[in-house]
Amino acid sequence: GLGWSYTACVGNTAPIPSINFPGLCLQDSPTGIRFALNVSAFPASINVAATFDETLMYNNGRYMGEELRDKGVNLHLAPVANMMRTPQGGRGWEAQGADPFLTGTSVTNIIAGVQSNGVQSTLK
User: Is the whole model's pTM more than 0.70, yes or no?
Assistant: First the structure.
């Protein structure tokens, strides 16, 4: 990618002027925007999923999507759907927990919320 940590993007795809494609700004953080000023720190995904509250899950994605859009991000590299099998994995907080149904429900709502702002989500 281009411009790692110099903008609100942790990666960019290059523009293609011949087809009027401006390129894409990618952001990789399940709790908001990294390397940027004046942004929110959203709760860890495992905490959001633990509420079992689908409206909260959607709103978490919606508000995160608003900030992503307002900072010029096109593609959000989140949420994470990996099943946490052991706490020693180190990144379990990014996922939704060990329950596959809860994980599916949570990531569906988070993605819908983010994408309601015109920002694409990429499920990991």
Answer: yes
Backbone angles phi, psi at 115, to 5 degrees: -70, -15
Spatial contact of 43 and 63, defined as CB atoms under 8 Å apart: no
Q: List pLDDT tens digits, range 33-77.
A: 887 888 899 999 999 999 999 999 999 999 999 999 999 999 999
Contact 91, 56 (CB under 8 A): no
Judged by phi (left if over 0) then psi (alpha if -120 to 50, else beta), residue 20 lies in left
Provide φ and ψ at 68, rounded to 5°.
-60, -50
Owner of token pair 């720190």: 41
> 3-class DSSP state for residue 16?
strand
DSSP string, 109-122: HHHHHHHTTT-EE-
Q: Tokens at residue 76, please?
A: 């959000």
